[in-house]
């Protein structure tokens, strides 16, 4: 088979999709794909992982070559639900199975500097940044960008980990030394005084079809996503512009499957990309009930080479994350008649991921609050008293 023909295989329902990773993203992918008639097998080291509860699971470490080989044998197509896939495993899977997403996008998005260069090459702006190899280089960049600045490790950071917001010159040495211990390259960025954080999820099929979901307005608490509000409370032209940028990135980077694009909207109405994730994204969970096609169905469609689904928004929605500390009060609410929801005319749709231990700050689920408008959904969230922030 030629490379092109191989890259454009159509995987029909009835086939088995293998997922590297068995967390909540894999679980929701498997739920959406099972409804279409696909079978799923996930590779994850935690027995009875969220995805293992709704699909078959191979219990083994992600970098276990024998387990990866078994996954390749059992699946007709392989995808992943997290981006830190071991490069050796990715290469082996590509040799032994069909991995339409390839490994290049993973390679790019595993490293902040490579990612920023790729975004710029696609003609989209990122916050001014510099690679720093020494405290002196950091000092030089700080004087160029002004304070505050954000120092980040190039690899391995998530939910604000591996970051230092430098607020004064006196912090430069300590910030450099602390993050330099991670043993990876460092990048410093200008601090963007954003009015809002937004995200857009784009999907691209191997045939090159691209569709974007409506932009979400995201609110973080302690660096963890708290709310996604859709439609984002920005004007329609900016919403379209955010979607155009995401489509340009999906095209420029040759993505297959989903790519989530996180953006800063500045006070002056400029959009800068913060970072990318080549997978379903927490800020796209709202699509499960609020769009004609969910991000998970779209991902399955894209990696299987099916035509992409309609991404239209069916209703305004606010997604609120359920962390460990929210589980108990949420379960108490679930069992009761929800007078507040009835009075406000909202429909809270509860999603829990089946994780065994509800540790504080751990993502355990989310609620998609469908409403006439964002204010009513936000009023419900506030009235429950579950999310006191
Ligand atoms: P990240 O891990 O890069 O997504 O960063 C986590 C959060 O830190 C972002 O969602 C922002 O709220 C904040 N942040 C990161 N980089 C910057 C920046 N250059 N300027 C302002 N805030 C930032």
What is the class of the largest domain in the CATH system? Alpha Beta
Shape: globular
What proportion strand? 25-35%
What ligands does this structure carry? adenosine monophosphate
Distance between the termini: 56 Å
CATH T-level topology of the largest domain: D-amino Acid Aminotransferase, Chain A, domain 1
CATH H level, superfamily name of the largest domain: ATP-grasp fold, B domain
* Major beta-sheet overview: 9 strands, antiparallel
* Contiguous helical run count: 14
- The averaged pLDDT comes out at 95
Instruction: Name the structural class.
Output: alpha+beta
Show the helix and strand layout.
Blueprint: H1 3-7, E1 16-20, H2 24-36, E2 39-44, E3 56-59, H3 65-74, E4 77-80, H4 87-96, H5 104-109, H6 112-121, E5 129-132, H7 135-145, E6 149-153, E7 163-166, H8 172-180, E8 186-190, E9 194-204, E10 210-212, E11 216-221, E12 224-230, H9 236-252, E13 257-266, E14 271-277, H10 287-290, H11 295-303, E15 317-323, H12 327-334, H13 339-344, E16 347-352, E17 363-370, H14 374-384
Parallel strand pairs: 1-2, 1-4, 2-3
Antiparallel strand pairs: 5-8, 6-7, 6-8, 9-10, 9-11, 9-13, 11-12, 12-15, 13-14, 15-17, 16-17
Helix pairs in contact: 2-11, 3-4, 7-8
The structure holds adenosine monophosphate.
């Amino acid at each position: 088979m030629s490379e092109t023909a191989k890259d454009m295989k159509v995987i029909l329902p009835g086939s088995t999709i293998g997922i590297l990773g068995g967390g909540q993203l894999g679980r929701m992918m498997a739920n959406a794909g099972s409804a279409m008639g696909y079978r799923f097998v996930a590779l994850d080291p935690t027995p009875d992982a969220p995805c293992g509860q709704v699909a078959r699971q191979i219990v083994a470490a992600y970098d276990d070559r024998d387990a990866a080989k078994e996954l390749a044998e059992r699946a007709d197509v392989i995808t992943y639900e997290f981006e830190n896939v071991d490069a050796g495993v990715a290469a082996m899977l590509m040799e032994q199975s069909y991995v339409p997403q390839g490994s290049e996008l993973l390679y790019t998005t595993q490293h902040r500097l490579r990612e920023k260069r790729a975004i710029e090459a696609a003609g989209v702006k990122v916050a001014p940044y510099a690679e720093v190899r020494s405290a002196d280089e950091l000092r030089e960049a700080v004087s160029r960008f002004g304070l505050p600045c954000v120092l980040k490790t190039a690899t391995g950071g998530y939910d604000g980990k591996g970051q230092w917001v430098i607020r004064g010159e006196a912090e430069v040495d300590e910030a450099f030394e602390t993050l330099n211990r991670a043993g990876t390259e460092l990048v410093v960025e200008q601090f963007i005084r954003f009015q809002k954080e937004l995200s857009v999820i784009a999907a691209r099929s191997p045939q090159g079809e691209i569709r974007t979901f409506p932009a979400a307005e995201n609110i973080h608490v302690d660096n963890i996503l708290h709310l996604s509000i859709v439609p984002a409370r920005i004007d329609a032209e900016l919403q379209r512009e955010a979607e155009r940028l995401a489509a340009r990135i999906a095209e420029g980077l040759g993505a297959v499957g989903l790519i989530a694009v996180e953006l800063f909207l500045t006070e002056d109405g400029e959009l800068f990309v913060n970072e990318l994730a080549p997978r379903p994204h927490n800020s796209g969970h709202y699509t499960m009930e609020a769009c004609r096609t969910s991000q998970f169905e779209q991902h399955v469609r894209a990696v299987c080479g099916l035509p992409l689904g309609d991404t239209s928004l069916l209703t305004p929605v606010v997604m609120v994350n359920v962390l460990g500390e929210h589980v108990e009060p949420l379960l108490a609410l679930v069992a009761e008649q929800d007078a507040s929801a009835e009075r406000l005319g909202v429909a809270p749709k509860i999603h829990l991921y089946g994780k065994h231990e509800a540790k504080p700050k751990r993502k355990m689920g989310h609620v998609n609050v469908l409403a006439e408008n964002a204010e009513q959904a936000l009023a419900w969230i506030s009235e429950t008293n579950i999310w006191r922030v």
